[in-house]
Amino acid sequence: MIGFYDYTVILTYLSLLSAGAGIVVSLAGGGHPFWGCFCLLFCGFCDAFDGKVARTKKGRTEMERNYGIQIDSLSDLVAFGVLPACIGAALIFRSTFLRKLALAYGNRWFFFIGAFVLFAILILYALAAMIRLAYFNVTEEERQRIEGGVRKFYTGLPVTSAALIFPLVLLLQHLTPMDITLVYVAAALATGFAFLSRIQVPKPRLKGILIMIAFGLLEVLALVLSYYFSR
After folding, report:
1. Neighbouring C-alpha atoms within 13 Å toward the C-beta of 6
2. Phi-psi sector, 210: left (phi>0), alpha (psi -120 to 50), beta
3. pTM of the entire structure?
4. Most buried of the four, 6, 23, 52, 143, by CB within 10 Å?
């Protein structure tokens, strides 16, 4: 078989599998965004360590390194670009706000037009994630050729931040009776702009990564508890 299957790529493969499962479960039936967020958080956990695990292997060939870079970006696009958009789509399917809007005006087209606009924003979010990843790849290749070493700053918000942003937004759904669909889509719009911005974001070291993992675990606990008590 083509491809590589040693331990250096396992976390990346697991991230993609989790993202695919999250997309399916988010859009299944009437939509299950809550479960999709667990898959998103797991993708973030895998991404936090995949590079470090890969670098533990001595004597990696140039092809192995390039392969790892390619699949990492492709996996990130699905996990942090497509999956958050699908979670948002599930919220739109379940949205009570849009249905109330259509009933208030006595016209079902208000629902379809509103849903179309929100879907379009989510698609643009996924596009922004793809552009961010492609731009990072080409600029990183150029930087390595000229400077070498490890970068200290990212230009634009890394797409992996989606793993912490959207579960935090979804928590609002279980902490308040209001429909947070518009809040989620607004967060996706703002995050997409942040992906393409020129803000300088420090690259986290091990301590920063561990803090983000701890924050993600707190989000998991909060989601479980809020879901349990909301029932």
Report:
1. 13
2. alpha
3. 0.91
4. 23
